[in-house]
Structure formats: C-alpha cells, structure tokens
Amino acid sequence: MPARGAHVVPHRHACPGPRRSCDPCRVTERVLPLVVRIERAAPPRRTDALEAAAAAVPRLLDHAENRAENSAEDGDEWSGEIAEWQDGRIRKVVRRARGAEWRRALALPGITVTVGTAEVRVHPPVPLDDWPRDLARLQVSGTDLEDDAVPPEPGPGDVVLWVNPRLTMTAGKAMAQAGHGAQFAWWGAGEADRAAWRGRGFAVRVRTAGAGRWDALAGSGLPVVRDAGFTEIEPGSATVVADAPWLRVGVPDL
Predict the structure, then answer these.
(1) What Gene Ontology terms describe what this protein does at the molecular function level (predicted)?
(2) Rounded Cα distance, 160 and 156, in Å
(3) How many C-beta neighbours within 10 Å does residue 10 have?
(4) The whole model's pTM is what?
(5) Rounded Cα–Cα distance for residues 155 and 192 (Å)
(6) In this structure, are strands 126-127 and 30-37 parallel, antiparallel, or unpaired?
(7) Is residue 101 assigned to a domain?
(8) Cα torsion at 51, 185, 163, 38 (round to 10°)?
(9) Shortest CA distance to 139 belongs to which of 169, 101, 168, 175?
(10) Domain of 99?
(11) Is residue 252 assigned to a domain?
(12) What is the dihedral of CA 210, 212, 213, 217, to 10 degrees?
C-alpha cells in the first residue's frame, strides 16, 4: 500500500516501510501527533525544533520495536497503532503547547525529545478523527519559529535532512516533513546502522540546501519526501532529501 501522505520517489534506494496486506475498509486512518513546546517568553530556535521533531520519529519506532522484541508482558506497546499508521499515509501533525497544555501533553503516553532549546513530544499514532482531548485542543496552524544564528555545516557521518530552498513552510510544516525524512532514514537502515544511530540518540541535522546542492541531492538517488499537499504547499512538492551514510551506497559524491 503506497504511503500517500509522504512517499519516496521510486529509485533503487527507496526505503519502503513495513507493508502488510489489509482490508482498507477495516483499517483506521491514523496520524502521528508531534507537540512542540513554545513558551511565549522563550520560544525554541527553528532548527532545534526541526531536529527534535525529526529525532522523535525514529525514537518512537525504535522504542516500539525493542519493546515488542524484548518484553513478553507488554511487548506490543504501541506496535498495533504504529503498524496501522505505517500501512497508510504516515501523516504527521504538529501542534504547539505551553504551560498547563504542555504538562497535560506530558501526562499522555509518548516520548519527549530535547534538542538545544527545543522540546518535542511524540505520541503514538491516533485515529484521524478521534484525538485525545488534551491533544485535540492544541493549536495546529501558524506554528512558526526563527533561528538567531546560521547553524553549522553537518559533519561527514551525520544523518542530514536537506530542506528544499524553493519552498516556504512554517516551522510546524517543516517539522512534519523532517519527521518524514527521518522515517525514511530509519526504514533504510540495517541493524548495525540503527544500533550506531541509536547510540547517538537518533540525532539528525536539518539544513536548508542551497539551490544547486538541492538539485544535485534531489537527482542523486537518495530518498525524497513528496508532500501530499494537505496544507501550505502544492501536492507532490519535494520537501526533504534524506541523507545518511547507509543511504549513500552507490550514490555519486555530492
């Protein structure tokens, strides 16, 4: 079943997630909630928020997978919800919270990821039309943030999510796209690569590519996220290229 909310351009390095045969009439469409903490007096930097959201996705997938393998008592924690979500559109929705809203989000099942000035909590996938009340009430539109300095160049062994410089996206939209890119990197990683990435806390670097670099990346054979166009940008827009050492096998030097 193709992922319609975001997908990889077909190529030899496409990283399809788990796909199971299923009756679409019996599958609940789910979305992945990501909540970013934005206090009025101290909003996070944009790049920190994007990197926290991106890292949260493989953290959630890894947590569920390891629990399923290692715990007989409650090993299927979130695995059913995650499997159902990955069989569909892998949609992600970013909402913002502060104060008591954030504390209520922390009380719900999930994982909190901190990167620099940003805190993002990822929750297990929820039905599209049946969000938990304390998440449903959070603001979703217009989430935007700024950087106060140019982030440094990524290192040679980093997992990098390159953002299309020709698109204008709010921070909330870009966070969701970065999450898609991190998910593609997770799907494409073998056990040894996942273990090494896990040891680094599933850290990623999110950077906006220059126009020339973007064109080279997008045509290189690395996984490309294409948005379904539900919000902000045109359907089919290429938003992010996922770049990791294990994805570069057979890819020309860029």
Answers:
(1) hydrolase activity
(2) 10
(3) 8
(4) 0.87
(5) 20
(6) antiparallel
(7) yes
(8) -20
(9) 101
(10) 29-247
(11) no
(12) 130
pLDDT tens sequence across 210-231 = 999 999 999 999 999 999 888 8
> Is 102 part of any domain?
yes
Q: Which two tokens stand for residue 163?
A: 């953002």
Listed residue (206, 222, 224, 228) closest to 91, CA to CA: 228
**What are the pLDDT digits (tens) for 132-154?**
999 999 998 878 899 999 999 99
For the chain, 254 residues long, the average pLDDT of each consecutive 10-residue run is 35 40 62 97 98 98 78 65 92 97 98 98 96 96 90 96 98 98 98 97 98 97 94 95 93 68
Residue with tokens 């998910």: 183
Tokens representing residue 26 in the block: 């019996």
Residues 6+ positions from 171 with CB-CB distance below 8 Å = 36, 46, 49, 50, 143, 144, 145
